[in-house]
Amino acid sequence: MKVKVLSRNPDDYVRETKLDIQRVPRNYDPALHPFEVSREYTRALNATKLDRVFAKPFVASLDGHRDGVNCMAKHTNSLSTLLSGSCDGEVKVWNLTKHECVRTLQAHEGFVRGMIVRFCGTSFFTVGDDKTIKQWKMETPGYGEEEEPLNTILGKTVFTGLDHHQKDAVFATCGQQVDIWDEQRSSPIRSFTWGVDSFSSVRFNPVETELLASCASDRSIVLYDMRESAPLKKVIMTMRSNSLCWNPMEAYYFTSSNEDYNLYTYDMRYLNKPIIVHMDHVSAVLDVDYSPTGKEFVSASFDKTVRIFPKDVGHSREVYHTKRMQHVICVKWSADNKYILSGSDEMNIRLWKANAAEKLGVLAPRERQASNYNQKLKEKFHYHPQIRRIAHHRHLPKSIYHQSKELRVMKEARRRKERNVRKHSKPGSVPVVSEKEKHVVTVVK
Amino acid sequence: MASPGDATLDTSHVGKNKVPARYWLELQKEGKDEAEVGKDAEPSRKRLRRKEKKKEKMKEKKTQKAKKMKQEDTLVKQTISGKSDPFPGPAPISQDRVRKFKRKTKTKRSGSVGNKLRDVISRSEEASEMAQKQSARFDLLLPEDAGFLEGDEDEDTCTISQEDIADAVDITSGAKYFNLKLSQFGPYRVDYSKTGRHLLLGGRRGHVACVDWQSKQLMCEINVMESVNDVKWLHSEAMYAVAQKKWLYIYDTNGIELHCIRKFNDVLRMQFLPYHFLLATASATSFLQYLDVSVGKEVAAICTKTGRLDVMCQNPHNAIVHLGHHNGTVTLWSPNQKEALVKMLCHQGGVRSIAVDKTGTYMVTSGMDKKLKVFDIRTFKPLNSYFLPAGSSCLSLSQKGLLSAATGDVVQVYRDVWSTTVTKPYMAHRVRGTVWGLHFCPFEDVLGVGHGDGFTSMLVPGAGEPNFDGLDANPYRSAKQRQEWEVKALLEKIQPELISLDPHELGQVDNAAFEQRHQDRVQALGFDPLAKAKFIPKYKKKGRSSAGSVERRKKQVAHEDQRDVIRETMEDKMKIEEERRQREKKAAVLSGQKSALDRFKK
């Protein structure tokens, strides 16, 4: 007779001393782990609920401006530095970690319209309503020294925006026309005009650095090549675009914020229709900025909210609002992909988390592991109706809630009418026009 | 692999019409070839490597400088000692190991699934395949092996007595064979806790005791002064339920009555669903009731309308409760439905006992007709039927698939009841009273038998799962670990709505909902956004857009579409044909015997 009976030595399964961690032998045999799908689903549901519980996106408010914040600029080298310009011509430099203003200077008379930090991070440019472009040192002047610009250029017309080249001593301004300036000269090296209208925003392409795009008030978005004397092409839409931002990773895409409550992501090569229409705002969208990963962007709107959109999805994944925040004029995504900064009418700059439920600070390895696992579970089960409902629910201020409902009703009515017209007319005479094609009037080359 | 030599040897086409080439046949063949290539990948890789080496040699002859460079290169590829790796590539995994970890259900991909979803599914399947392979590799590191019992030549294992086994094994294991002589309050019902450390005994005449049976430490002992029908541990060893004469009671390990649940009356049998925290009870009034023990609420009460319910078991794979009835039927129940999910007629007389194995594949039943039957409950078809001279009153299945059946006062243990036809029991043991309750101890080679004269703990080598999972059921867990486990388990308690026959249903693509939503969308939009766009030929220059050529291009596209349709229908037809042929073949085999007239058939 040969016999063997299971006999475990407890020493192999129990920790030796109290200072050790407990031993946890694993056996991944699926027969020992029944209901794996349902259990994972339950875990995903819990993770989604916890996500909503911990969603506290507001970090801090920076106050100190004496008028509405009109523009902001990220520092190119320092994560903790932020520059902001207000409607009374004041520029403030902020230390974000300490939540305090480290420097204030009266840059312009009237609005500060645009601001940009030079790629080296040692100086910054501002343009204002007083028709000047000023270059400032980044360093705070020493005791007894006066705040004076390094350079002042007097222009002929009002400037409404500016952007600096990625690596050359060249910058671009917009106003009545788009000008390209050499930092050493007091007159533009090139100016572009197409039509008579003014421009509201100009941006350099971050990868193809000689390319620019600008939003004109004749409802068009114009593309330029700095090396050529004439603009490349433009797309005319049904409503005016307020600003635009290039995708930093796939720099042939740009997103423009429009007066018709939508944002449009275009492929620079095919302007005849946008890649995606991003809808959700209930008032004009004023500013847009991409995350450094190029996967998401944030938009600021006149409806007093900030929304975050994934780059390839038509609706926002997140909406930020507070009782006191008024029309949001400018918005920036921080260079470490963790924070969002919004400047609004009521003189405050607000610091938000980019990921509302994310824990700030250093994570312990097990914590990180758990959060990664939860993230994966949420991804896996996000189509399930119950999880989807919880994950998508956002509380909205009453006015916005009702307005969005109204917009939905209006849209549905329009669609119903169109459907009825189509039903009662000759087949093919009322073609189906997709949402993407609706908003583009024409492309001019 | 198909080589020209094989083909000539195999068949000669002389005198036969050549079979026309069909592309679908070719497709099938390709699929097969690929599978074979997978097997033969190793040698071909070696061949490739050899070729590479040859090439390298040729080059080395050419220049000295290049040689030096190459040497450096090869040094990187080889080990530090300069020898090449004798076992290149990842280590092979044995097939049955991989099969053990294979998930049975692959996501069905129907036509309406979009491209994006298809990508997601294929990516997740890839990931899970990788995980399965890794865990199959990890299987090698499991520390314990299962027990076994082998007789000498012409010695039946069923003749080996428990005393002999207990003498032959080590002292601690030998101590696991013991008898408790409790003749006063018997016969006894038995239950082991999920980790297998704790034993609960419930005597018919009111004696309830819980014991840490390995250290033989008595945790509590009470007499409820009422008849006890069944006892059951709840999720941990801190609480247990006792079905008494009138009502259901819950006690803790000190024997203190925690709850008396008057909603549950005349309970005869109980089952605890550990992942759902549900206590399912079957009563004499033919009610099947579910109690959520985490919140203390009744989840469902189903009137089965089938009389007294005293045969009950659960399917550990999908948490479906099986009930046996007097008319020989077995019914399957979930708390979400007022009617039985399935009714199967299993026996000619009444059903006496049911057991379901832990993978949820097989169900074993015994009936008044003295038969023991094995069913496949995925297809609800009988696999085996045995005749036991005395019939069996109690059945229990172990983690490793051993079946114990009690006939009167004899406990018999069978091995491989579903895969082979068994003629002899694996083990047998006579106890001192009629057997009332049987339960295999999880993670141990022990069978607990409750009978009229007390309790017997039997040694059954090869019954228990040798390697437990520390995060699921850890027999060696400390109090702290148990608390943590309890919190985790409660957090991932599965809702009773998710109980269904197929536990993987939640992971499948819900095509019905998608189609419904799509229809709604079409209704709202007035057109089908997913409809295939009509082909409009591009305008081409240099006279290539003449009406004729445009028409030709259109036709080409139309043909392409048609070809797909034809391919599909042909494949369907082939499949049906194949099935028909199979059926015929089977029928021919079944009809079997040749008749005398068959010789005239061509």
From TrEMBL, chain A:
Residues 415-437 are annotated as: Disordered. One of its GO terms (cellular component) is Cul4-RING E3 ubiquitin ligase complex. Its main location: nucleus. WD repeats lie at residues 62-104, 278-309, 321-362. Pathway: Protein modification; protein ubiquitination. Keywords: Nucleus, Repeat, Ribonucleoprotein, Ribosome biogenesis, rRNA processing, Ubl conjugation pathway, WD repeat. It is found in: Nucleus, Nucleolus. Residues 415-426 have a biased composition (Basic residues). InterPro entries: Sof1, WD40/YVTN_repeat-like_dom_sf, WD40_repeat_CS, WD40_repeat_dom_sf, WD40_rpt, WD_repeat_DCAF13/WDSOF1. GO terms for molecular function: ubiquitin-like ligase-substrate adaptor activity. Belongs to the WD repeat DCAF13/WDSOF1 family. This is DDB1- and CUL4-associated factor 13.
TrEMBL record, chain B:
Its main location: nucleus. Residues 425-503 form the BING4 C-terminal domain. It holds the Pfam family WD40. It comes from the Eukaryota. Residues 1-75, 542-602 are annotated as: Disordered. Residues 27-45, 55-75, 557-587 have a biased composition (Basic and acidic residues). GO terms for cellular component: 90S preribosome; small-subunit processome. Keywords: Nucleus, Phosphoprotein, Repeat, WD repeat. It is found in: Nucleus, Nucleolus. WD repeats lie at residues 344-385. GO terms for biological process: maturation of SSU-rRNA from tricistronic rRNA transcript (SSU-rRNA, 5.8S rRNA, LSU-rRNA). Scaffold component of the nucleolar structure. Required for localization of DDX21 and NCL to the granular compartment of the nucleolus. Part of the small subunit (SSU) processome, first precursor of the small eukaryotic ribosomal subunit. During the assembly of the SSU processome in the nucleolus, many ribosome biogenesis factors, an RNA chaperone and ribosomal proteins associate with the nascent pre-rRNA and work in concert to generate RNA folding, modifications, rearrangements and cleavage as well as targeted degradation of pre-ribosomal RNA by the RNA exosome. Part of the small subunit (SSU) processome, composed of more than 70 proteins and the RNA chaperone small nucleolar RNA (snoRNA) U3. Interacts with DDX21, NCL, NOP2 and EBNA1BP2. This is WD repeat-containing protein 46. It comes from Labrus bergylta (ballan wrasse).
